Amino acid sequence: MLFSDWDILSEKIIHSRHEQRSSKRGPYSSDHQINAWLRPSSRLGHSLHSSPAARPPAQCSGCTHELNLHRPIILDEATDFFKNLGVSDFTFDSCRLWGWRCRAKLAVRGSSTSPLIGLYQEGTHNVVDIPHCKAHHPNINAAVELLKQGITELNVEPYDEDQGTGELRYVQMAVTTRNTSLPAAERYRNGKVQVALVWNSRNENSPSSDKLNALANFLWRNGGRSSKVHLMHSVWANFQTSTNNIIFGNRWRHLLGERDFWEHVGGIDISLDPSSFGQANTRAFDSLLRQLRKYVPYGASVADLYAGAGVIGLSLAATRKCRQELGWSVKCIEINKESKLSFEKTVGRLPTSIDCSIRLASCGHFNFDPPRKGLDPSLVDALRTISLVERKAKSSQSSSLKVKDEKRPWILRAREASVMIESKTTWEESQSLPQTLIYISCGWESFKEDCKSLLSSKAWHLDKAHGFNFFPGTQSIEVLAIFKRGPRAGHKKKKSGKKSGKKKKKPL
Ligand SMILES: C[S@@+](CC[C@H](N)C(=O)[O-])C[C@H]1O[C@@H](n2cnc3c(N)ncnc32)[C@H](O)[C@@H]1O
User: Fold this and answer.
1) Is the domain 1-24+68-100+277-488 a CATH 3.40.50.150 member?
2) Which residue has the least CA distance to atom 18 on ligand 1?
3) Is 442 a catalytic residue?
4) What is the position in ligand 1's atom list of the atom closest to the CA of 339?
5) What are 241-270's pLDDT values in tens digits?
6) 306 is in an annotated binding site
7) Given 2.40.50.1070, 3.40.220.10, 2.60.40.10, 2.30.30.240, which CATH number is that of 31-64+101-259?
8) Is 397 annotated as a binding residue?
């Protein structure tokens, strides 16, 4: 049985995923995407991103529109979609519209005298400089500005994709807004930036390492703790020489500043190393986690699939006091081994009574091919057939009861042992099959497909749905959808063969 393979039987399955793009499209498509990689647009970038005044600005691919940021075009479609599925109280939280991006992966190109730091122009590998991006947390822009000065002053060569030459390939900037020494209202504005420089060498012993250290020192001298403007949290290096589209290599080095990066989200302190997945929109993520809690009863057991560093599961573990009756409070499943360290650090700050674990595995079959889009097909299949598993378990339980009633010794002898043991195990397992499925999605198209597929099996019905503006300026919304086991209440099956004057109900 697939579920016993996963070892994730639980009352709750929390799922979160990201839309993964075809690797042929460019560096955004790797596991480590650069910001948002979105659909073509002809009018973006004018007000969101600064450009030379004399000629039409090149368009970065980060945003698709600049008007009505609080109401993405896709919202009407989403509202209709959920209404048709019986959820007429779909809500949408428009969240913070500017300065929301607390995590950005930016390409570094151009020359040392005129560096470009930004995103690709749609459909090309031409980097568009975005020094005043309004989506970025302002301190990301300030750190980018400082980085440019350092590149020029120290004659650092930006990467040349065609030749495979140059030194600095990408930079990841992540902002922490957790600072307990400041009043809560001032923390966001005063966020500090963790800078990860992706260096074009195998490791820290390469000939260009002196320059890497000089650049890190420059950033720290001018933006570190004792500088006039304290911008930086820390500086890291990542080493990458591959010519493929994957942004990060496997080797990370902490260079300066604090090693541990803490953020406060979903009611807990979370640790995020630069190598592990982190949500870009910290504030919107916090709103989603607050909403999510309402659907998780106190004492529930949770399996968090596609868990990253386990933020969702651990937030629930702490705020919903997840219980250990089934052997765990929260179990996280994640494919990226880099997430483990951050997960363990976060757990270290939780009460010891909370029993959480992370399992490094795929949520689909146990191969390590990540899904192109949406849920792994094997996961969808398992969720679709969940009631079958339960029905089988029930029927084997009732046959096992009949077996118990059987008095004739020759029949009892024939049915001995194996059947009894098998049916008992299956029944116990079925008791802990999930009753609620919470699906958090940033890929609207794949969400619709997965949703239809789950509902068509009749094993689930859609109970609630909420949208969040995780990426203002884009067509993307984050969806929090709550599925419950079985048919919706009031959706009773008609008895077959009997005529009824009532109108037929449309299937979901
Ligand atoms: C969008 S991130 C969400 C992470 C986390 N839930 C959060 O919100 O911080 C999706 C995660 O799924 C992981 N992932 C992708 N395919 C997977 C698979 N087949 N099995 C397990 N994890 C997978 C990625 O490594 C990534 O950490």
Assistant:
1) yes
2) 362
3) yes
4) 27
5) 999 889 999 999 999 999 999 999 999 999
6) yes
7) 2.40.50.1070
8) no
